Task: structure prediction
Amino acid sequence: MSRQGILFVEHQGEIVGGGQFSLLALMQHLKNYEPHCVTGGTGTMTAAVRERDIAVEVIRMPAIRPSRIAAVWRCVWGVYRLAKKRNVVLLHANGSRCMFYAGLAAKFLRLPVCWHVRINDSDGWWDRLLAGWATCIVVVSPAVAQRFAHLDVGAKVRIIYNGVDLETFAHGDRAVSRARWGWGDRPVVGMVAQLIPLKRHDIFIAAAALLAPRFPEAVFAIVGSEPDPAQGYEALLRSQVAELGLEERVVFTGFCDDAPGLFAAFDIAVLTSENEAFGRVLIEAMAADKPVVATEFGGALEIVVPGQTGLLVPIGDARATADAVGSLLADSDRARALGVAGRERARAKFSIEAHVAQVEALYVEMLKR
Result:
């Protein structure tokens, strides 16, 4: 018996962050439904979907503006026709813009639609409009659920943590990754995050400056790319590194297609975000047995047990970050114990299998409605 189809709607053609990685993992590991996908352009995201043998088509999804009304309706029509052609039973929107297009198409098709919300910044009245169209809203943490405080959590709003393919991150090749970057046996402190101001790489760099004299062999790796180079954020960070005289200590790797290998190469993983809906990279690091140091944003409070699976520090505090990282660099036994405990917590709460089971159970419920 053939599986019922789900159409996943993603307006990005490129992989720009954890939201796309999470969507890829969900589609790849579905058990009882057949995934189909539509993306907003050609690029790394579309290519990654194809590499997983998932049917994908490209339909441009412009920003929702009155001046683009003709293009907007062409996209709605395109999603509608694709859903009908694939004979899907449900649409799954990966974000707000996607929800606009999927929501209208689902209305015309009289099909249920799931809105997956991965960030906690409210869009005001826009949220209320899209929430009204959604059959169900999936949020990735209680912090994101606060965005929909006017709705009942457990009824229309469901908290389902992101899932990670833990085995992939448990078997990264440390030797190959270290050889690639020339790190040898040096201690490596790494941060994996998009190069955007929200992630506060400046705090990571400031902490590196405090740690560098104490740990002269340590390397500080910044992994990720800037979605819009015209914003100049990476240039600003490189300028900070130069002003602090850290050119030989701080490495910018750019986007890396071997995240498991990089996490394996790290000794400590750091995330200095000032606000984060979830913090998927923390789970990936934990799956790789790495101790984590993170700021006390909403998602980290769900992932890290302070003092047991990692360390939490105040947002924007470079000194506290340096102290936490330094304590682990100086005590390898403690760092190792935190890494092991983190791995076990990741397996217990954040596996891709558990994530898929919860999402598929929600699909069953939505279809019964």
In short: The domain at 4-163+351-368 is CATH 3.40.50.2000 (Rossmann fold). The first strand starts at residue 4 and ends at 10. The first helix runs from residue 18 to 29. The chain has a mean pLDDT of 93.
